[in-house]
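Narrative of activities, Objective 1.

The group set out to show that a structural description can be obtained from nothing but a protein's sequence at a throughput compatible with the screening campaign. Below is one input-output pair from the validation batch, recorded exactly as produced.
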Amino acid sequence: MPQAVMEINKLNDAEQVRKRTKLMLGAPQVNEDELEEIAKMQERGQSSMEDDGNAATRTLMGDYTDRTPSLAGRTPMRTPKSEGDMLRLEAQNLIALTEGETPLKGGLNTPLHDSDFTGATPKQRPAQTPNPIATPMRTVGGTPGRGGITPVLHTGSRGGATPGATPLRDQLGLNEDPEAAMRSREQSRALKDGLSALPSAKNQYEIMQPELPAENLSAGPEMEEDAADIEEREAKNMRAREKQAMKERSTPLKRKLPRPLSCEEESVISNSKSQANDPEYLLEKEMFEMVQDDGVRFPMRSSGVNQAEDPSYVLKSKSCLPHYTPEELTLASNMLKEELVDILQTKEVTKEDDAKLWEECYQNLIFLPEKGYILKQQLTDEQLREADKNVYKELKEQMTKDAKKANKMEKKLQTLTAGYYKRAQQLIQEIQSMHTEQETKSQELACFQALQAQEACALPARLAALTEDVEAAKKRESQLQQYFKEKMDTLSELKKA
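Output recorded for this entry:
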């Protein structure tokens, strides 16, 4: 059974059915002897160029090696490899497309084999052996369709040369074309004649203003303003309104003066001055309304943020007092200053007297938790003791609070300046040690200076004593030498006798 299947496959195979024809090649244009002679000539030329001459003068010679792609010695052309079964290639393409990832992830596509969709079934591509004679070869400098074997000469070639002829290899430009100079002169003369025929230039200018079309501002739809520009403009307007609201606050709020926790009308307005047309009564009433308005809008709190310093809150809070323009407020302030100056001049009151009066008023008032500030003359001795106890208690609490706050700040300061403190201690120790060393060196210097002075005083006496000793030693030595000579003379006389 397997043999029968193989026989059927052989019968169905197109390559087995088709018979090979006899290979027919054209007659060779160059025989073996001529190829060997050309190779020998090429080897002799290369050896002469490499061996003869000096390396410095070798660059003066042109490269006359054969750049013509010869067919001798090359590997003969072969029949290209068949691509295989087209059904198998298409099956591989389908498997690759099925197992590949989605192209939505990006990256490279799945590599596929080339397909031919000209028919319902894949088309077989029979392999063919190329014909070197029928197909023109592309060579360096060659032109397809003109032989293709011998390159065309570009430099130094003459017009009308036969295509495919042996090129004239003249790289050094020794064989110049005699007609080149003539052609160059003809071209130069033709260029000069053409330039001379041109009309002369005229330096005439005329400046005309272009007619611009009238701008139509109403044409086209209006551009919508950017949201960022709108927000910036609104923020700028808000800051301006907040600044104006901060300016319109009362003077105690601007100067951050102390304010009462609560204000009663009886404590500000006197009972005796109850007439509606009395200026002092009107002034006290207006003052009470201002204090009450500030207390309602910005109540006093023991802790937390001061609302009177928040621009956004000041802008939102509305005053119940009548609104006055800046010009009216400026006019009233000037009038008040003039009246104050008049009072100071007429009654001879100075700023020191004002401070003294304030101190007297403060000393005559005393604070009670139930009633607030009351004159001392209106209180009994028991109430005064209770008031003093309250003041002492408040001062003690304030001192305790300040002490805790100071301790916290001291700990925070120690945490922040621990490194600086450590470095300062090191520098103090170094300074102390250097100071001690400096004092020691100063004492040693003083001692050596005193010793130098003593040595300077005693040096002449020592030199005189040493000089006397040296003179005495020389004199003693001369006497001993003379005595020794006498003894030697005596000894010589005794030996002779």
